[in-house]
Write a structure and sequence with these properties.
Blueprint: E1 2-4, E2 7-11, E3 24-28, E4 31-33, H1 40-50, H2 55-59, E5 61-66, E6 71-76, H3 100-109, H4 117-125, E7 188-194, E8 217-220, E9 241-243, E10 252-253, E11 257-259
Parallel strand pairs: 7-10
Antiparallel strand pairs: 1-4, 2-3, 4-11, 5-6, 7-8, 8-9
Length: 265
């Protein structure tokens, strides 16, 4: 894990979507955050230790992106073990097909928790006050690919110019200034907060906890399906998505945080 120091962090954007405005300051305590998304190997250790059964395994399907049909479809038997319903992922790839409660259960077992939305954005910025992406202000600085996302015209063709079509192993790209990998692209990440479109209008300035209730949880970071022609904004550190907690998808995972006062597992 990497330490994100206590301090005042800028959250949101004056130029983003309506629910990403206004840009505002949030005072946060120091916290530890996973260097990368939770991997298949790490989640498998949790399952072996607890006999945990994910929501997708209980219902018998989860959401898979069908490249031929160019749409999402319910994939029979798709679950964390078989993200596309057929083939297992590699141990060093991010675990996907986990619903919010699955991610929370893993975090609790590991002696950690899911990050608040403000914590996630502060970590993604890597100490840069004017960042658009975790590495700076340009999507491809000096023509270099800094993350795993969709190149080409979505949904017709993913050219794979960043080296991957689909999920990439963790640590495949350079870390940000906090030493964190894949804070943009690869797989989107669950946060602890409920989503509200107008939350930033009145968010507390100290340790904002998110709304007390809601219908969808915040998702951050974009994924390998974030395309330059339609989803490029999802790669921005301030981009906000949201999904109902029971949803599990082929491009959706998580990472954990731990309070500085907590002992490591």
């Amino acid at each position: 894990m990497a330490l994100v120091p206590a301090g005042k962090y800028w959250i949101g954007s004056p130029r983003g979507a309506e629910d990403e405005q206004p840009r505002h300051a949030a005072q946060l305590d120091a916290f530890w955050i996973d260097l990368h998304e939770v991997t298949m190997a790490e989640f498998a250790a949790f399952v072996r230790a607890t006999d945990y059964i994910t929501i997708a395994q209980r219902v018998g399907y989860s959401w898979v992106y069908d490249a031929e049909r160019k749409c999402w479809r319910p994939g029979q038997n798709a679950c964390w073990r078989l993200p596309d319903g057929r083939q297992p992922a590699a141990p060093n790839e991010p675990v996907t097909q986990v619903a919010w409660s699955d991610a929370e259960a893993y975090a609790r077992w590991a002696g950690k928790r899911l990050p608040s939305e403000a914590e996630w954005e502060a970590a993604a910025a890597g100490g840069l006050n004017d960042a658009i992406y975790p590495w700076g202000r340009e999507l491809r600085p000096q023509g270099r690919y800094e993350a795993n996302y969709w190149q080409g015209w979505f949904p017709d063709q993913d050219l794979g110019r960043d080296g991957y079509r689909g999920v990439a192993p963790v640590r495949s790209y350079r870390a940000n200034r906090y030493g964190l990998y894949d804070m943009a692209g690869n797989v989107a990440e669950w946060c602890a907060d409920w989503h509200s479109a107008d939350y930033y209008q009145s968010a507390p300035s100290v340790r904002p906890p998110g709304p007390a209730q809601g219908e969808a949880k915040v998702v951050r970071g974009g994924s390998w399906l974030s395309a330059e022609n339609v989803h490029r904004s999802l790669m921005c550190i301030y981009a906000r998505e949201h999904l109902p907690p029971p949803v599990a998808r082929q491009d959706l995972g998580f990472r954990c945080v731990r309070d500085v006062s907590q002992s490591a597992r």
